[in-house]
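Researcher: I'm preparing a figure for a lab meeting and need a structural model of a single chain. I don't have an experimental structure, so a prediction will have to do for now. The sequence is pasted below. Please return the structure as tokens so I can convert it later.
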Amino acid sequence: MNDVFKNMKVPTKIIFFSKQKGFSSLLFIVLVGLSLTVLTVGYMSSMRNLQSSATTAHAQTQAQMQAMIGYQALGGFLKAQSLTNIAKIETGTVSGGTSPIQFKKIACGTNQYCFDIVGKSGGATSIIRSKFIITDELESKSQTGSVFAGGLRVNKLEDLSASGVTLEVSGGIINKNNNQTYDATALNNAGITVVAYTPKNFIRPQDLRKDANYIFTLESGNAKCTKNNFFDATQNKQITVETEITCPLAVTRESDSWVVNGNSEITGVLWFDGNVIVNLSKTTDFINTVISTQKIKTELLSESQDANYNAFAPHHYYITATEEQKTARAQKVCPTDYLLQYCQAAGQLKSDTLMAQSPATISNILFLSQTLELAAGKEKQHNIVVNYYGNLIANGTSGGTGSPSGKFTGTGVLNIRGNVMVVGEADMTEMLGDFSMKLTNAQAAGNVIPFYKKVFSVGGIRYM
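Model: Understood. Here is the structure written out token by token.
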């Protein structure tokens, strides 16, 4: 038995019958390939998402930049506008970016102006809500030239005498009747200096009632007269509130107008609610500041040949006097019941420093109104000379025989020693017909008038 086991041979190699034949390797390769494919697809998708996010973020950033550019441009635009113009703005566009940037006014508080400014880029939109705080403060400064804010059209340059006078005109040009403009050579030959009009906040008639001496209004259809800002010599005290008085004989109410008689002795600042006719006399100088909420029209009393008609603003009456005339003229301007705005005492004006400050500067205004129509002289035909001394301020002006607001027409000559300020920016002032205007510089002290200074500040911005 033992021999049997001894004689048995042990095999030299072992044979396994469960061999895998490479399937595991193939499966591993397939799985790795699938994993790489999934990773690649995921990476590509992630890259697309990142690119899309980056594009969106870039577009939004650009839109925000556009809105900020619009904010800066709108602020610059508003700074150059009068408060009256700003109040009219509702919507619009400003430039400065790659395309016009829209803005829209939003309701805001008193003296506050809020705008939504819309920036757009690549389909993205960004809105900045901005707040501007804009107020008017009264100041006095020198106006060194005449103003035609809505433009000026002149039939013949020889009809406009303005040697040594600067004219502020819309666009810095003077138009002809044929819609052409006068070139620099023609203006130089005529001795006319023209600069572009810079928007200003001119004083308004309603703002000066508090600084007037005689106030004329209607109450239930009847004339009502009050007096203010004067020294009452009888009571030996200053009157600084409106006090009702019997209407002076120098002023009457006719039809729909107040009529001021140029022969009267009344002097001071006359404030009217409504239309005013000022009758100029050849025998008596007219010495007043006349303010109307509507229209001032001048007419000539007893018109005849070889006559001079003079209308003076109170301060101009004094500063145009000779040394021999000054005492008498000071007593005329500052009577016993002297006026507090520009008189120190009876027969004495305030110091030069105080005369350059408000409210004394009201004495440099001859006429202030919405519309102004001036009687002209007929120097060539009848030697009738009409002189206006002082500053004339109106939204529209006419002259000669009368015409619509904003036009000078008719026959005659306007002699103005001071500044004409046609401050309405909507209508062009026109000099038509056989009509001429002579503008002459006033003394420096007579050019200082009250203005409104626009105070501009930013109340804040935020993205909506």
